[in-house]
Every structure is written in structure tokens, then in C-alpha cells.
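Researcher: I'd like a structural prediction for the single chain below. Treat it as a standalone chain; there are no partners to consider.
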Amino acid sequence: MSQSKFKPIQMNLFDLTYSLSDRKLRMLESGWPGYFNRVIIPELVKLESIFEPLYSKNTNTRPSTPTYLVLAMLVLKDLFTLTDEELERSVTFSLEYQFALGTTSFEHQPVNQRTLNRFRAANAFYMQQTGIDLLHEFAEKLAKSLKDAYLGTNLKRRMDSIMVDNGARKLSRLQLAHVVIKNMLMVLDENKIAIPENLQHYIEDFDENKVTYHSHTPAAAKLQTAFQDACAVRDLIPGTLNDCEEAQMLIRFVSEQVNTNTDGSFHSVRDGKELNSTVLNNPVEPESTFRKKAGENHQGYVGIISLKQSTSIPTERSSTHLISSPISTAIPSSPKMKFRRWLKKETKQLWLPTEPTSAWITSMKQLNTEFNL
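Model: Treating it as a single chain, here is the predicted structure.
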């Protein structure tokens, strides 16, 4: 029997994934079947040449089941602690297993209990004849490749980010304008600086709620009026108060939210699409930022977590940094980290033969050392 190696699989018109909804397909791709198909299968394809001595070199003989599929089924068998019979039924009837193996277009799944038994028997016979345990060699190389892929190397640093909520009130643009104007007008009033009559309502109690919720004026008109008033209040600030916090917040607000003329007067309200996440969100937390992560809107500070594998110490070193500015590039998604944790949890014994040999036990210890289990 000659060895059948990996060949690209052409999806046919009756592929099972074509009948799935977009939601179900996303669940397969984001779950363990998707990662197994995209990450583990390519590693098995690279290592299938290790088992060439078990097959005939005569290509005219009957081809075998592709070696990478046999290895993939052995991996799945021991990851989920299945018997050969349970594995055969799972691959035959479960779409998750078929998606992981990339065999959703196959009319008959390439799994049989006799195939697995013969593969293990051929490896055991080869080890008796030569003293070389091919599964041992395979396990070592696969462990190393997965270690480099998931635990990192000197040239790789995995990173992720979290959002730390600042606990401050989330303000709309109109509410933010009222807050910074009111704060500045109260400072002017304390310093006995005359406030124009049309601006005095800002320092009244509940004025923000009246304008925001009880006024029937169109929202665009209310926003333009508030921003014009912000420019007017900015012009009232004397030089002696330019350094106070309230004045700095108002000046920053106008510079970020308003398009001004060459003389600094109000021109128009800046389009919300032009604003980035560094703009003022709340004067209570002036350095906080906002971003959308995992489908939710967050306001606060960005925490950066970086992990690097040390060459001398088999454990990971992590460091956390809090920064106020947002990240401009996309952070690698955490599902990869979840998959590594799942793999470390589930991979207790891989590809265990019927009767473990001393060489196999040594390989398992080596695999555990590589994964730091």
C-alpha cells in the first residue's frame, strides 16, 4: 500500500457547509473546529512524511487513507478521550469533526476502525524492526511546532488589550457642551466677571435637562446653539484664568468639536465622523478614551497585556501597561489564547497506543515538558 499525502480538497456543490446559515458557519470557524482546520491540519501535513517508511514505495499499489487525516483522527480521538468506535461515529455524523478535518465535501468519511488499528500496528512493527518510534518523533516535532506557534518565540510577542472603565458619566456631545460651559461660567461668576444675559441660564439648576430632554428644538439646532455659546464663553476668559482647569477643558472642547474661522469665531459644528477616540469625553476624566471592543462600546483607559516566552525559563512573563491613548492597530484576537488554554487543558495524553512502550512514555514526558503542562 502506497502512502497518500495531502492534496487540496475541491469543495463540491453538495458541501454540507453551503446549507448552513451565516451564524452557524461563524460558530464553526470561531470554535475549535475552525482552529483545528486552520492551524493543526497544516502542521500535520508538514509532518506526514515522517511515516513514509511504513508504506510501499511502489506508487502503483493501492493508495492508503491520507496520512495527515489518520494523524488528525488520532489527535481528535485522544483530545476528546474517545474509543475507536466513538471516533468513527463522531466523524461520520458530526459536522464539527468533519469541518475540523476538512472533509465536509466527502460522500463517505475516510474513517474506519481497521485503518487506525493497522496504522498503530505498522508503527509498532517498524519500531520492533528498527528501534525507531515514529510516533515519538512525530509527537516531539508537533509539540515543538505548537510551542512556537502558541507560546511564542524570541521574535514574537503576543498582545491583547482590555478596557478599564473610568466610572465617569457617558455624555452626549450636547451634554458635554453644557458641562464645560457651566463649569467655566461658574469660575467667571466666582471671579466677579460679568456674564451675558443669554448665557446665564447655563448656571441654573437643571438647565441641562431642560435643554436636552424638554426642549422641542431640533437636535441639530440645539447642538449648534450650544457650540456657538461655547465659543462665546471662550472669548470671555481673561488671561489670568487661561491656566485654570475649567478654561483648559473648554478651550480643548472648542478646538476638537468646532470648525472655526480664521479669527477663531464659530463657523460650524464638526461632523461626528471626523472625531477620533482621543477627544474629550468627560471633564472629570480628561485623559480617558473610548473604543469598540468585542461588540461593545467602552469608555475609560486601555490596558495592554503583552506576553513573551523566555528562552531559559519555560513559563510566560507578562506585563500590563495602562495607557490613555487608544491603539491604532488591531490587536490579535483572544480566541487564539483561548484555544491554547483549551489545548493545554485537554492535551493530557496524545495518540496513546494500545500498549505504551518505554519510548512512548518518554515522548509523552517530553511533550508535557514542551507544553509546560
